[in-house]
Amino acid sequence: MTIRERLKRHSKSILIFLTATVLIVLLSLVLLGNEPESSALAESPLTVPTSPSSSSATLEQPAQSLVTKQQFDIEVIYAYVGKGLSETPHSHFDGVLMYPKNQYQSVIYFNVTHVSNSETESCDAIIEVYLIEVTSDTGCTEKYKYFEGTNYNPDFQDLTEITMRTYALIPMYSTSVERGFFTSNLTTNQSILGHRVGSIGSYTSGPSELGLWSAGEPNTITVSIYRVGWTVAKGSSVSLIRDECSEAIEEVQLEKFGDGFLYNTVVPQHQLSQMDLFHPDSLTK
Question: What pLDDT score was predicted for residue 30?
Answer without folding.
Answer: 33
